[in-house]
User: Which sequence fits this backbone?
């Protein structure tokens, strides 16, 4: 069921991205005075933007119904790293909360990755794919964008935690416990960055030894990876024709993420101990 849930979350993410990007479709703003204006879309009619959001909410709602009545005696788990929330399938409201919260975490993680790519500021036209879903956030100050993952994750989890606590049997958690959970999730959100950082450095290493042509994607990968590796520039990591900087970069990224994960788990255990 976890794989099925993940696939539906990806489908929901695609619906969300289509909703965000359909207004940038050149065929929706064609004018007769231009060559683009003479083109007609192959589809019989134009999809209204709000249809996509309607499909998304309908899919999340129907998924909750399916989990409640098609998959009995199942315990769904919302795993966000430090904190894991179980949801029983025999509680319909719990399945509704799980369905929306599971997609919400995927959507939030996606935007956290976009904020990282916005901070790295790679070249166009690939960076345009980051700018479209982010909108005006892409032009904000780097310091604000650096704080947004913590603020967004902590605030959303703090609000969701109130709803989770009201599921039967109600937990009646204290305000301090809700605040601590939000703090942990806010810090945990930065660990999502290890995956795009590792992927960019690995692709840069691959392209260093295999020529894939002058495609804008590889230009974006190489320039963004050089920005990531800039803190290692004072060190000589090249041995003959071999540059070990990407390898060292990948190691440092995942090593730091693993150490940070252990630190957050220790902090979580300490907070739980003092709550007893």
Assistant:
């Amino acid at each position: 069921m976890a794989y099925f849930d993940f696939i539906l979350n990806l489908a929901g993410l695609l619906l969300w991205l289509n909703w965000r990007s359909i207004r940038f479709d050149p065929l929706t703003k064609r004018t007769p005075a231009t060559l683009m204006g003479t083109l007609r879309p192959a589809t019989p009619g134009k999809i209204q933007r709000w249809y996509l959001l309607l499909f998304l909410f309908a899919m999340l709602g129907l998924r909750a119904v399916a989990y409640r009545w098609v998959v009995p005696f199942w315990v769904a788990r919302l795993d966000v790293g430090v904190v894991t929330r179980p949801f029983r399938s025999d509680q319909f409201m719990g399945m509704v909360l799980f369905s929306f919260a599971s997609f919400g975490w995927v959507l939030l993680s996606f935007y956290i990755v976009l904020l990282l790519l916005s901070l790295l500021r790679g070249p166009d036209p690939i960076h345009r794919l980051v700018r479209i879903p982010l909108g005006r956030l892409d032009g904000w100050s780097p310091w604000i964008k650096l704080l947004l993952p913590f603020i967004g994750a902590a605030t959303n989890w703090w609000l969701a935690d109130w709803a989770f606590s009201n599921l039967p049997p109600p937990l009646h958690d204290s305000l301090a416990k809700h605040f601590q959970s939000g703090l942990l999730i806010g810090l945990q959100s930065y660990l999502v960055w290890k995956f795009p950082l590792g992927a960019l450095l690995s692709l840069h290493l691959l392209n260093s030894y295999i020529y894939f042509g002058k495609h804008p994607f590889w230009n974006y990968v190489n320039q963004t990876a050089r920005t990531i590796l800039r803190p290692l520039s004072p060190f000589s990591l090249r041995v003959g024709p071999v540059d070990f900087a990407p390898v060292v970069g990948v190691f440092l990224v995942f090593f730091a993420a693993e150490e940070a994960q252990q630190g957050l788990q220790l902090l979580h255990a300490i907070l739980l101990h003092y709550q007893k």
